[in-house]
Amino acid sequence: MIVAITMITAPAYAQHNADSINCPVKDIGDLLRKDTMANSKPPKNYYLFGAPVIGSSPATGFIIGLAGQITFKGKNPLDKYSVVNANFQYTTKNQILFQVKNNLLLAQNKLILSGDMRIFIYSQPTYGLGTDALNAESTGNGIIIGNESVEPDSIAENMFYNYYKLHQLAAYNIKGIFYLGAGLNFDIYQKISVDYPLLSGKDTSFHTAYSLLHGYDSTNYALNGISAHAIIDTRDNQINATKGIYMNLSYQFEPNFSKQQKSSSVFSAELRYFKTVNVMHKHHTIAWWAMGTFTTSALPYLSLPALGWDQRSRSGRGYAQGTFRGQNFVYGEIEYRFPITCNEVLGGVLFINGTTASDKDREVKLFRFIQPAFGIGLRINMDKASRTNLVLDYGIGKKSNGFYLNAGETY
């Protein structure tokens, strides 16, 4: 993929927060203006980031789009930053992608709002269920990590569909670090088709075979329901945390609203942990991320938990979105974040992750096959007040790789 961007920013000026008087923390704005100008302006509690995006990939063709993000906080010194981001993309394969996401801390950090809205006219390859999908052989005992694999393109089946999503969670601080809340969840899939060679005039694709086995229409279905959440959040900054934990335990119930949807339920758990240590008077952070999704019944194929389909679409660096999918799904990642320059305008990361997914229909169990990936990244400090970084990462998976460009840390 080739990506070109420009930035349009409204900076949030702040006093230097330095580990050393001789080497204060700076952002990209400090390098483009004189310090006297920065000190003469009143502090602002928001930061805007805008980026036209141009790129290409085999799955999408040529891409053109626009992305933007705003981070902001209240006037109370104890208020934490909130973030809203949006993007629109169009591709030469007639794909249209529009999404808006919010992660807000309001009312002096007592109210959490988290939402995800998407309108996709989309296509994406699928490789079947389970993390053994790309394995050349599935024999042997015990846990299998990585082993020999087939070429992904040799088994890929390209799916075309329209996807409409609206998820919104609201949680309120009950006591201390504990929040309780509820959410509405709407996922609608329409006009589903699969580009797959017909054998003996019959569609035997992964999607159609699964849909017929579990009684779903292979062209249209939905997963709409409500969810309950228990949350703990002690992070110092959700955009770029250096300490604290975030935990979200959720139970989602989907009643039988119509013939397009069956009654089902999903349990999910997510944990993020951050620890910073000082090395030569500079902050180095270790970040852990783990999440699991577990289904109690057969969901529609495209609603099954899959890599890269988390709220921020950040999991699975090294693999394409949707490479691994299953009825039960667990993902884990660890990342080491460190400064490169003394003033921390430039930073770097090293990361490694692993994915496992089950396929109950073939009796492929969770943790039987684990698919790893690893990579490196560069960070450019765009705003030192909110600690917003421009993120450039390169990930390598099993016969797979990818380049990732974002605003704000991966998790």
Description:
The protein has an 18-stranded mixed beta sheet that branches. The protein is globular. It contains four helices and 18 strands. With about 400 residues, the chain is mainly beta. It has helices at about 30, 35-40, 150-155, 205-215; strands at about 10, 45-55, 60-70, 80-90, 95-105, 110-125, 145, 155-175, 180-195, 220-235, 245-255, 265-280, 280-295, 330-340, 345-355, 370-385, 390-395, 400-405.
Largest sheet: 18 strands, mixed
The helix/strand order is: EHHEEEEEEHEEHEEEEEEEEE
CA gyration radius, whole angstroms: 22 Å
Decide which structural class fits the backbone: mainly beta
The outline comes out as: globular
User: What percentage of residues falls in helices of 4 or more residues?
Assistant: under 10%
Strand content: over 45%
> Which residues form runs of ≥5 with pLDDT under 50?
1-19
Q: How confident overall, as mean pLDDT?
A: 87
End-to-end distance, in Å?
23 Å
Compute the number of strand runs: 18
- How many helices? The count is 4
